[in-house]
Amino acid sequence: MGAAVTKSESLQKEWVPQTKLEAKIIEAVQRRASRGTTMKSFNSIVLKFPKIDEGLRNCRAIFQEFDEDSNGSIDQNELKNCIRKLEISFEEEEINDLFKACDINEDLGITFTEFIVLLCLVYLLKDDSSTLQKKWTMGMPKLEPTFETLVDTFVFLDGNKDGHVSREEMVRAIDESGERSSGRIAMKRFEEMDWDKNGMVNFKEFLFAFTQWVGIDEDEEEDDIDEKA
Ligand SMILES: [Ca+2]
Ligand SMILES: [Ca+2]
Ligand SMILES: [Ca+2]
């Protein structure tokens, strides 16, 4: 891990997925993009923030259900049980990739924010096979519209539908809002999203940033940790 990323210029043009999961996410985003977006402007997205925030808070109960030992984080075994319970047909390798992809701070646990990203990725990928749709919907009926809004937003931002949001696409999306400082806001938003600083934002990075924009944070959990320490 790590050493492979040296030619940052070539990355911008020809990005190669590191895992099967990443390739699948790109595929799924592009498939979803072919159906178009209902978003009209960045402002229309901002107006949805409170609704999205409320929707994402519903994930808390699901999170607690899967965090079997209630230690505030879902470990690899708990995730496997979770995927099994939802009857999502992921291979062992895919579950491991999903775990790694969402465990951004690499502490071998999925916290609540990381879990939201994970669920949304599962939502996106479930499009792959319609057979798991029924069970999935039963498990989280209220979350579908929220996740759909998130996917829709990404599709809106990704102007050329290549599965990534570039700086230019972000500037264009926010520019249309007509605000005077829109260029600066767009750059700031972009920097917030592009945390591996490769000049492109993938769906996962977008999700992590977005959950913060709408107001979800892990204050509660951090307080818990402080008390124990
Ligand atoms: Ca746990
Ligand atoms: Ca983690
Ligand atoms: Ca793009």
TrEMBL record:
Pfam families: EF-hand_5, EF-hand_7. Residues 54-89, 90-125, 145-180, 181-216 form the EF-hand domain. It comes from the Eukaryota. The keyword Cell membrane does not apply. The keyword Flavoprotein does not apply. Keywords: Calcium. CDD domains: EFh (cd00051). This is Calcium-binding protein CML21. It comes from Cardamine amara subsp. amara.
